Amino acid sequence: MTASAKQRPVDCPCGGAAPDRRDTGKPPRFADCCGRYIDGGAAAPTALELMRSRYSAYVLGESQYLRDTWAAQTCPADLDVDADAPDAPRWLGLQIKRYTPLDDTHAEVEFVARYKVGGRAHRLHESSRFVRGEDGRWRYVDGDVSDR
Ligand SMILES: [Zn+2]
């Protein structure tokens, strides 16, 4: 993947998802939402915002951002997201079910992400764990996938 000529949407792929937010809201602009973290290099202030930006990074195929926001001990060595691959999931939307800050450096986010692969619809329902490093940045650790 090259870093040149990145296509960026106007509306943020994450839709500004939050536990108290319904689909009726107008999505935030990408530049004002996840773009600040993915392109701007700013640190997501909460695990909730990091979660949203990671969803948007999957939509946009930003493998480097996904690696940078994944805890070193759990990040897959071969992580590579190619959003243009024929078998790549087409992400349809993010819903945040629950955001639980546990303490200053630990938080959980439960979400449902809907996507299609080869015309078939799927949903990923996961409770994700996040930690905040000594550099002040939140990172994804792992998650429990629910089949409901
Ligand atoms: Zn966003």
From TrEMBL:
This is YchJ-like middle NTF2-like domain-containing protein. It holds the Pfam family YchJ_M-like. InterPro entries: NTF2-like_dom_sf (IPR032710), YchJ-like_M (IPR048469). It comes from Paraburkholderia piptadeniae. SUPFAM superfamilies: NTF2-like (SSF54427). It comes from the Bacteria. Residues 46-143 form the YchJ-like middle NTF2-like domain. Residues 1-28 are annotated as: Disordered.
